[in-house]
From TrEMBL:
Binding site for a divalent metal cation: 29, 77
Record-annotated membrane-spanning stretches: 36-53, 59-80, 100-122
Taxonomic lineage from the root: Bacteria, Pseudomonadati, Pseudomonadota, Gammaproteobacteria, Aeromonadales
Protein name: Diacylglycerol kinase
Molecular function (Gene Ontology), one example: ATP binding
Length: 125
């Protein structure tokens, strides 16, 4: 068994580490800051655009998923950068895949937000 914190203290410490991660992302990652600001704007918009709780939650979850994926992408980039600045195919591939994950999440958001707006406001479908 792995030694370390147990019980509620472990949960408390995990919360501290999580906040450190959010602070680091905010301080060092411009894309993270931009996406958080965008999601803060989209959060109230979800309650205006969505018709009913299910649509509203879908819009909120997808919007904030961008922030989650960006944090993971930033973590991958930090680890790759930690191991040196020399060019390596695997390092480039890892960074490109992280970027692709963010891009796909943004496209998914655009499609779902567009569909909900189309259905609720424009009378499509």
């Amino acid at each position: 068994m792995k030694p370390g914190n147990k019980g509620l203290y472990r949960v408390y410490k995990a919360g501290i580490y999580s906040m450190q991660g959010i602070k680091a992302a905010w301080k060092h990652e411009a894309a993270f800051r931009q996406e958080v600001i965008l999601m803060l704007l989209l959060t109230p918009a979800a309650f205006i655009v969505g018709a009913g709780l299910t649509q509203q939650l879908l819009l909120l979850v997808l919007a904030w998923l961008v922030v989650i994926v960006e944090i993971l992408n930033s973590a991958v980039e930090a680890v790759v950068d930690r191991f040196g600045g020399e060019m390596h195919d695997l390092s480039g591939r890892a960074k490109d895949m992280g970027s692709a994950a963010v891009f796909i999440t943004l496209v998914l958001n655009a499609v779902v937000w567009g569909a909900v707006i189309g259905q609720n406001w424009l009378g499509w479908w």
